[in-house]
C-alpha cells in the first residue's frame, strides 16, 4: 500500500485521496451522512467551496466527528475556494467560509478560477454583465494575507493554465502550494503539488463523462489486476504524485475509490495509459463570451493548453 500523504512545497502534508462535496442537489443531510461514512472508511481530506454550498454540511459533520472523538482537527485536511465575486476581498470571503464551516482555519484555500465577477454574483453561471476586471496581483496579495492571518495553512489555485501560474509566480511572495489541475510537468518544475479534481471524469454530473472508466485500456488493466476501472484511473493519478479528489456519496463507490491506495500498476500499465488522449472535462465554457468576459474563447481561458 502506497503512502496516503504527500508533502507540499510549504512542508505541510496533504492526504492523497480526498472526498469532493459538490452535488447538484446539495442536500445537507445527505452530505453530512456521506462525510460520516467517509471518515469511517479512512478519508481525511475534504474538498468544498463557497459556490458548492456544502461548507455548512461538511463543517457540521466534521464538528460532530471531532466532538465524538472519531478524529482530531489536526488529522483532517479541508480545502475551500475563493469564488470570483470575492476577488476584491479574499480575507472577508474566507472568514465567511470559516463561519459556514464552524472552523478557525482551513488547510488549503484556492482561487477557484482566474475570473473576477461583480460582488453580487453568488451563482455558478455568471451572466454577461457579471464580469469584472481581473487584477490577479491584488487577489493574490489578499490570499497571502489570509495565510498571514492564520485563516488558512496553505494557498493555491484551481483551473489555472501553466502560463497563468507562471505570471502569478512573477509577483507572488508566497508561491501556490497546490494547483487543482493536470499541469504535472510545469507544476513539478516549480514544486507545486497537483490535485486532480474529478479524476474519473465526473460521471453523474451534468458536465460529466464516463469516457475514463469506459476506456478499453482502463478496462483491460482493471481485468488484469482484478480491480475496477475507477481504481485503475485513480491509481494512475496517484502514481504521478498527484492527490485525487473523488466525489461519490454512494457507500460502495466510496469504499472502492479509497481502496485504489492498495493497487499498484506496473510499468506496462502506465505506458498503456499514457497512450490515452487527454481531455479536460470541466472546461469553463460558462466563463467565456465575446463581449464582457476577459476570455473570448476557451483557448484564451486556457492559453491554448486545451
From TrEMBL:
Keyword annotations for this protein?
NADP
> A Gene Ontology biological process annotation?
indole alkaloid biosynthetic process
Q: Give the NADP-dependent oxidoreductase domain ranges.
A: 17-277
A Pfam family the protein falls into: Aldo_ket_red
Residues that bind substrate, according to the entry?
112
Q: Which family does it belong to?
A: Belongs to the aldo/keto reductase family.
* Protein name, UniProt field: NAD(P)-linked oxidoreductase superfamily protein
Q: What is the lineage of its organism?
A: Eukaryota, Viridiplantae, Streptophyta, Embryophyta, Tracheophyta
Amino acid at each position: 500500500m502506497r503512502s496516503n500523504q504527500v508533502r507540499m512545497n510549504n512542508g505541510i502534508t496533504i492526504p492523497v485521496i480526498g472526498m469532493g462535496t459538490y452535488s447538484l442537489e446539495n442536500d445537507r443531510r445527505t452530505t453530512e451522512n456521506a462525510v460520516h461514512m467517509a471518515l469511517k472508511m479512512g478519508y481525511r481530506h475534504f474538498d468544498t467551496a463557497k459556490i458548492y454550498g456544502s461548507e455548512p454540511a461538511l463543517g457540521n459533520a466534521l464538528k460532530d466527528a471531532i466532538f465524538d472523538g472519531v478524529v482530531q482537527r489536526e488529522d483532517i485536511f479541508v480545502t475551500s475556494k475563493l469564488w470570483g465575486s470575492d476577488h476584491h476581498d479574499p480575507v472577508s470571503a474566507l472568514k465567511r467560509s470559516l463561519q459556514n464551516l464552524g472552523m478557525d482555519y482551513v488547510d488549503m484555500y484556492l482561487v477557484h478560477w482566474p475570473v473576477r465577477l461583480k460582488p453580487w454574483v453568488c451563482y455558478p453561471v455568471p451572466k454577461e454583465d457579471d464580469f469584472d476586471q481581473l487584477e490577479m496581483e491584488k487577489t493574490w496579495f489578499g490570499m497571502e494575507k489570509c495565510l498571514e492571518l492564520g485563516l488558512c495553512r496553505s494557498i493555491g489555485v484551481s483551473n489555472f493554465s501553466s502560463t497563468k501560474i507562471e505570471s502569478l509566480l512573477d509577483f507572488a511572495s508566497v508561491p501556490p502550494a497546490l494547483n487543482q489541475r493536470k499541469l504535472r510537468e510545469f507544476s513539478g518544475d516549480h514544486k507545486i503539488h497537483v490535485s486532480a479534481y474529478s479524476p474519473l471524469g465526473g460521471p453523474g454530473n451534468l458536465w460529466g463523462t464516463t469516457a475514463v472508466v469506459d476506456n478499453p485500456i482502463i478496462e483491460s488493466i482493471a481485468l488484469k489486476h482484478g480491480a475496477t476501472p475507477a481504481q485503475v484511473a485513480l491509481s494512475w493519478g496517484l502514481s504521478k504524485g498527484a492527490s485525487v479528489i473523488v466525489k461519490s456519496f454512494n457507500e460502495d463507490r466510496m469504499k472502492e475509490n479509497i481502496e485504489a491506495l492498495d493497487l499498484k500498476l506496473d510499468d506496462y500499465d502506465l505506458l498503456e495509459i499514457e497512450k490515452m488522449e487527454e481531455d479536460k472535462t470541466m472546461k469553463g465554457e460558462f466563463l467565456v463570451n465575446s463581449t464582457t468576459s476577459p476570455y473570448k474563447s476557451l483557448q484564451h481561458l486556457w492559453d491554448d493548453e486545451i
